[in-house]
Amino acid sequence: MSGDGPLVGIVGCGVTGGQVATLLRDASPDIGLIVHDRQPATARRLASFVGGLATEQIADLAAADVVACCHPSPHLDLVEQLVDAGVTVVSTSDDPHDVIDLLSLPPRGPLVVGVGMAPGLSGLLSRSLAGQLAVLDELHVAVSGTGGPACARRHHRALGDAALGWADGEWIERPGGSGRELCWFPEPLGPHDCYRAAHADPVVLHLAFPAVQRVTLKVSATRRDRLTARLPMLRPPHVGGNTGGLRVEARGALADGARWTAIAGAAGRVADLAAAVCAGTVEACLDGQVGPGTHILGGVALDGAGILARTVAHGVTIQEFTGVARPSTW
After folding, report:
1. Where in the chain does DSSP place strands (E)?
2. Which CATH number goes with the domain that contains 161?
3. What's this model's pTM, rounded to 2 decimal places?
C-alpha cells in the first residue's frame, strides 16, 4: 500500500464495498486503502486483492482522508464517530430511518448521504433531467434489483412497510406493495411491475428539489415478494446480488409552456451501479469538491454533473428515452 497518496477507508467488504475498493484501486494506484468488516477474514481477503490494509479496529479509520460506509444500515453511530474525528464520510445507506437520522445531524465536516443507486444515481439523473425543463413539477423513480444479501433483506422488508411520497406540499403514506405500475427500465431489463415501498429516495429528492410538487418511488416485485413481505425471507438472498436498474422520470414544462417528460436510467448489476456512484463521490471528496456540512447527490451544493461523469467513467452506461432512435449524448 502506497504511503504517498490519499488514504480511503472502506467499511463493509461485501459485494458493493469490494467493488468500490476495486474501482478506486484501478482508477488511481496512488490511493491507499484500509478496509474493515465485521468478519475480519472478509476484510483480509479484500485487502489482499486490492493491495490494501485490513483492520479490526474502527479507530484506525480515523487516519483516512475519506471513509466510504458500505456496510448494512444503520450507519448513524459510525458516521458520527468518524465525522467527529475529522474524517470526510460517504454513506451508501438507503434505509429511510437511517437516512433521515443522518440528514438530521448538526452540520460538521463533509458528509455525503445516500450514495448508491437510489438514492444516489437517482439524484444525479434527476438534476441532469431538470436541466432540460424550464419548470420541474414531478419526479418519479423506479428501482429494480438488489445489491447484496443485506440489500435484498431491506428490499424484502420495504414492501411490507408504509411508503412515503410527497404530494402537493405534504407527505403521504401508502401501504407497501400497493400502487401497481408497469415501468419500462433501460435494456436489457425492459418492463417490470413496480409497487410502493418504504424507501429513502423520496426524502432525499424532496430535499434536493423542494419546489417539486410530487415525488414518488416504486420498486419491482413479484407476486410472491408482495405476499411474503411481512414474513421472514423464504430463501437466502443471492450472495452477489443481481442485475437490476433505475428509471428516473422528470415531468414539467419547457420554456414555451409545453408539457414535457424526460426519462433516463441505467441497468446492470446493482452493486456495480451503486459502487460506481460511491467511488465517483469519494474521488470528488478527495479532490476537495465537497465542502463542510451534510450533502446529498442531486443537491445544488455539489457538482452533480462532475460526479455523474465520474460514475460513467467507472463503467455505468446512462440511457435516455428520446422517442426516436438516435445516439445517446451521455
Report:
1. 7-11, 32-36, 53-54, 66-69, 88-91, 111-113, 135-144, 163-167, 170-174, 181-185, 190-196, 214-220, 243-253, 259-269, 294-296, 318-321
2. 3.30.360.10
3. 0.91
